[in-house]
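sry for the spam today, last one i promise. C-alpha cells for design, 406 residues
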C-alpha cells in the first residue's frame, strides 16, 4: 500500500507565514472594519522599477514574433543574465566568480530548500537560532534532523547556534563540528550583520573542519556600512567551502516575479565529489529554467537606469526601517537591526511571549508582525517588523504601537 513520506509528518505545525496569514484572515473576517497594517512577511510593496517594466514589455513582444520567440531556457540560465550577475555582483566587488559558476533559478527560497538534496543524509547541519524556517524544515522533509523535542522546540540532529542580545545576534563557532552551516547575512530575522573579518573566521573554520557554508545573501542590497561583506566570496578561501544563494526579491522587488541564483565555485567539493557538477545534474533533471521574460527583467536590474532606480527603492524601504527603529526606540522598546537590513528586531514588552505580543498588536492596534519564536527558541520574547510596507502604513503602524499602554 502506498505510504506518504513520513518525514513530512514530523513537521510541527504549518509554515510560519501560513500560520500568520491564517490568523490575520480569521481576525479580519471577524472584524471587517479593522484597518490592518501588515508588517509581517517580508513582502515588497513598491511597483517594479520602470527599467524592469520596459524590459518585461520588450521580452513579451519578443515572444510574440516567430523570429525572436524563445522556448525552453537553458537550464542553468541565459548567458546575458549570468554575465550581468558575474560582472556586477562579483567582479565589481573583487570576487573571483565566473558566469558559468552561476545557476539561475526562480528564487532563493526554492534554492535554499533544494540545495540540501545534493548532500548525504548523514550530514549534520548547523543553523542560527533564530533562523529563516525554510533551512530547517527542508532538512526535516529530507529526514536529516532526527527527532523533535516539542518542549525545547529543537531537533536532536541539528546544531543550534544561538543569536542573542549577548552576542549581538551573531553566531559563535559551534562546539560540535557540523558538515553544513547555514548562514544568512544581513540576517533574517534579526537584521544583524557580521563584519568581513568575522565572516573570514567562518570561512577559515569551514575550510579547517571540511564543512560547507550555505550563505544566504538575499538582503545584501540593504547593507549601508562599509565593513559588511556583500558576498562570502569577498573572503579568502571561500571558493573551497561556500555556496552562495541570492534573490531578486528584496533588491529589485521580484517577490511576485520570481528570480534568484545560486553560486557554486567549480573547485567546491564534498570529499572528492564535485558539487558544481552535482547541482548542474540536479538542475538539468528537475528544472527547466526561469522564464526568458523574467530573466530579461533580471538583466535590467543591472542596467544603469535599473541600478539608479533600485537604489532609490532600497532607500525608500530603509527610510521605513529608520522610522520604525527610531520610533520604537524613542518609545522605550529594545530594538536592533534596521541599519543594514530591512528587518527590525524588538523585544516584546513586559516579558510577553512573542505570540502574546502578536495577538496583542493584532487585536489592539491592528498591526501584524512576525513572532520571534516562530524562527526558533532563541527568538522567544522577540518580534520582527519589516520595512517593506508603504511609508504611510509604516508611519501609521509605528504611531499606533507607540500609543499602546503596556
Ligand atoms: C520573510 O518574511 O522572512 C521572507 O519574506 C520570507 C521569504 O523571503 O521567503
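last one done:
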Amino acid at each position: 500500500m502506498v505510504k506518504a513520506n513520513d518525514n513530512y509528518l514530523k513537521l510541527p505545525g504549518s509554515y510560519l507565514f501560513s500560520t500568520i496569514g491564517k490568523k490575520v484572515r480569521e481576525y479580519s473576517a471577524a472584524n471587517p472594519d479593522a484597518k490592518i497594517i501588515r508588517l509581517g512577511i517580508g513582502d515588497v510593496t513598491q511597483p517594479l522599477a520602470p527599467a524592469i517594466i520596459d524590459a518585461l514589455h520588450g521580452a513579451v513582444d519578443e515572444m510574440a514574433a516567430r523570429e525572436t520567440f524563445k522556448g525552453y531556457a537553458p537550464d542553468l540560465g541565459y548567458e546575458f543574465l549570468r554575465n550581468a550577475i558575474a560582472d556586477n555582483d562579483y567582479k565589481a566587488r573583487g570576487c573571483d566568480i565566473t558566469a558559468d559558476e552561476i545557476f539561475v533559478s526562480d528564487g532563493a527560497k526554492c534554492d535554499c530548500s533544494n540545495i540540501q538534496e545534493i548532500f548525504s543524509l548523514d550530514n549534520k547541519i548547523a543553523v542560527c537560532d533564530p533562523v529563516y524556517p525554510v533551512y530547517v524544515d527542508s532538512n526535516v522533509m529530507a529526514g536529516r534532523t532526527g527527532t523533535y523535542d516539542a518542549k525545547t522546540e529543537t531537533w536532536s540532529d541539528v546544531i543550534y547556534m544561538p543569536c542573542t542580545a549577548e552576542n549581538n545576534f551573531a553566531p559563535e563557532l559551534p562546539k560540535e563540528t557540523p558538515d553544513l552551516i547555514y548562514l544568512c547575512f544581513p540576517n533574517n530575522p534579526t537584521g544583524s550583520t557580521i563584519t568581513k573579518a568575522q565572516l573570514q573566521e567562518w570561512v577559515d573554520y569551514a575550510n579547517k573542519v571540511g564543512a560547507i557554508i550555505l550563505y544566504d545573501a538575499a538582503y545584501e542590497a540593504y547593507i549601508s556600512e562599509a565593513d559588511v561583506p556583500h558576498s562570502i566570496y569577498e573572503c579568502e578561501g571561500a571558493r573551497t567551502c561556500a555556496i552562495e544563494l541570492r534573490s531578486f526579491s528584496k533588491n529589485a522587488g521580484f517577490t511576485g516575479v520570481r528570480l534568484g541564483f545560486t553560486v557554486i565555485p567549480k573547485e567546491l567539493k564534498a570529499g572528492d565529489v564535485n558539487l558544481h557538477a552535482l547541482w548542474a545534474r540536479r538542475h538539468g533533471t528537475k528544472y527547466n529554467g526561469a522564464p526568458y521574460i523574467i530573466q530579461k527583467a533580471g538583466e535590467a536590474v543591472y542596467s544603469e537606469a535599473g541600478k539608479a532606480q533600485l537604489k532609490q527603492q532600497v532607500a525608500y524601504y530603509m527610510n521605513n526601517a529608520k522610522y520604525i527603529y527610531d520610533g520604537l526606540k524613542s518609545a522605550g522598546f529594545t530594538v536592533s537591526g534596521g541599519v543594514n537590513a530591512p528587518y527590525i528586531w524588538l523585544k516584546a514588552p513586559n516579558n510577553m511571549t512573542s505570540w502574546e505580543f502578536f495577538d496583542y498588536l493584532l487585536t489592539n492596534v491592528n498591526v501584524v508582525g512576525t513572532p520571534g519564536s516562530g524562527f526558533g527558541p532563541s527568538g522567544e520574547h522577540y518580534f520582527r517588523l519589516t520595512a517593506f510596507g508603504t511609508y504611510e502604513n509604516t508611519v501609521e503602524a509605528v504611531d499606533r504601537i507607540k500609543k499602546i499602554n503596556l
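The pocket of D-malate is lined by residues 41-43, 109, 132, 188 (CB under 6 Å). ok im logging off now
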